[in-house]
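Input record, target 12 of the design panel.
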């Protein structure tokens, strides 16, 4: 049992203002494995005050980017030193198969931190341009106090997508983990505490929606970065719009994998399947609409069905497991609701659809394949966030692209073809923020984010750093060149 009755605020472990607790429940057994205090607005006020003081009084924003990068490198090394503990904790907390918790959660988190550590060293935070009336100094200054609101599905990695660029920029931060997955965040706080980070630069307070909304509205918060559902994103975006607060929103997806008529299925499936079902299907970038050419539709359906029947469901800590339990009973009910809708709307259930045999506890759902799906059906339009795939037929590349684009979302997508040039042509025509040709990939040096209702703004790459910077132009008169850095 991991029980915490404090929050990480101002570099210290501070008693919670309230006494209510939130249980952390194992998705594998349904048993309570830990608890944290249910944060109140008073706790959030204390965290924001610490972040504000750390920003306004320094030294973090005034430290050189190299000094900040040195501390970031220490944090990365510490996480790596505890790699197995982090992976096991995350897998236990939210149900990701251990192999995915290792690579997709922990390694990915340190890789993002390392990317921004290097970017902090290399980035031009200040440059001089020749202005009309003399030199202009263009500065990129830290945005100030940032609030990071984290979902439960990839908690450490998504925290790092926000924390790493914030640290590189010189901003300070309040991190609000989801109440389902606070334990890895506290483990990260233990590392931050001894990393050399000045007090208050990062504050960690897990909380539910109401206290989360208090953080978003807080007048001392300059910027909000949110990852989660499109519904919550609309609400948070509206509050930030009203307050003219900087805001980045990473929201849902319903991405289409276009399987071309020239595809080598045997070569494609080992990457297409994890792209569709990674993290038990609880991934915003999951390729859950699979578009197959009518001429090879039956062959694609049968190959997918075979693969899904052989997908190993089990305890996420078992290295052989490919699909673990869903995060919570509530999430399983939601996924089962979509499976019922798929059947009711006339899709053909090919594999799965129920709870796997032999699991009388935990929140397991069978990997599920629906065929004969029309893109207008609910299971093709809404994000299910579970291991449920919809196979949709198409006639020709133009039709495939039209179906891929016929979505409220625009986060990710992929194409599977023997011809990389054809793949690139298709990629250029699909309206999504990221795209993959013949592989499962995410480039941490390149922007990540959504078109349409999948979000606003970008994470990763220099674009992700820019989200934590304010541009400032300082006009100097002719003759002032001697005060400029050489
Ligand atoms: P959610 O929107 O319910 O919650 C996400 C986080 O926001 C949690 O910490 C929650 O406590 C908080 N929250 C919810 N409403 C809030 C409000 N009004 N004010 C402040 N905080 C609030 O989503 P979830 O169920 O936790 O996560 C699943 C969703 O996240 C899926 O829709 C998925 O697609 C999306 N997601 C998107 C990305 C991306 O990068 N685009 C990545 C991962 C997950």
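The sequence produced for target 12 reads:
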């Amino acid at each position: 049992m991991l029980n915490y009755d404090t929050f990480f605020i101002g570099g210290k472990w501070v008693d919670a203002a309230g006494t209510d607790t939130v249980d952390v429940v194992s998705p594998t057994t349904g048993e309570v494995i830990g608890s944290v205090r249910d944060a109140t607005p008073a706790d959030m006020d204390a965290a924001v005050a610490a972040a504000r003081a750390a920003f306004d009084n320094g030294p973090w924003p005034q430290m050189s980017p190299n000094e900040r990068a040195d501390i970031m490198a220490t944090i990365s090394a510490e996480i790596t030193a505890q790699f197995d503990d982090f992976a096991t904790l995350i897998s236990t907390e939210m149900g990701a198969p251990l192999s995915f918790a290792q690579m997709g959660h922990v390694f990915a988190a340190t890789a993002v931190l390392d990317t921004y550590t290097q970017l902090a060293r290399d980035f031009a935070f200040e440059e001089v341009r020749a202005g009309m009336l003399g030199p202009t100094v263009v500065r990129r200054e830290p945005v100030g106090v940032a609030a990071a609101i984290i979902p439960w599905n990839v908690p450490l990695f998504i925290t790092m997508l926000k924390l790493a660029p914030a640290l590189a920029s010189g901003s300070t931060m309040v991190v609000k983990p989801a109440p389902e997955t606070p334990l890895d965040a506290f483990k990260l706080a233990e590392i931050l505490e001894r990393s050399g980070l000045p007090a208050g630069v990062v504050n960690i307070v897990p909380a539910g929606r109401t206290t989360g909304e208090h953080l978003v509205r807080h007048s001392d918060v300059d910027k909000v970065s949110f990852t989660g559902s499109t519904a919550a994103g609309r609400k948070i975006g509206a509050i930030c719009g009203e307050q003219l607060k900087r805001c980045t929103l990473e929201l849902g997806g319903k991405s289409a994998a276009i399987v071309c008529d020239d595809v080598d299925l045997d070569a494609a499936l080992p990457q297409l399947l994890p792209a569709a079902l990674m993290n038990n299907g609880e991934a915003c970038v999951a390729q859950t609409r699979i578009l197959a050419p009518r001429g090879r539709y039956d062959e694609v359906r049968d190959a997918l069905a075979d693969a899904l029947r052989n997908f190993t469901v089990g305890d996420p800590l078992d290295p052989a497991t490919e699909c673990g339990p869903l995060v919570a009973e509530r999430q399983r009910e939601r996924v089962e609701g979509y499976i019922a809708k798929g059947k009711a709307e006339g899709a053909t259930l090919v594999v799965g659809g129920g709870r796997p045999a032999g699991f009388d506890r935990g929140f397991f759902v069978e990997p599920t394949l629906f065929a004969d799906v029309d893109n207008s059906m609910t299971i093709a339009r809404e994000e299910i966030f579970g291991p449920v795939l919809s196979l949709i037929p198409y006639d020709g590349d133009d039709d495939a692209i039209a179906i891929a684009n016929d979505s409220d979302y625009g986060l990710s997508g992929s194409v599977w073809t023997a011809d990389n040039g054809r793949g690139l042509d298709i990629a250029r025509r699909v309206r999504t923020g990221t795209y993959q040709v013949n592989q499962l990939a995410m480039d941490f040096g390149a922007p990540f984010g959504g078109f349409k209702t999948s979000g606003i703004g970008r994470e990763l790459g220099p674009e992700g750093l820019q989200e934590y910077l304010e541009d400032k132009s300082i006009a100097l008169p002719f003759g002032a060149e001697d005060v400029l850095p050489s």
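The two ends are 57 Å apart (CA to CA).
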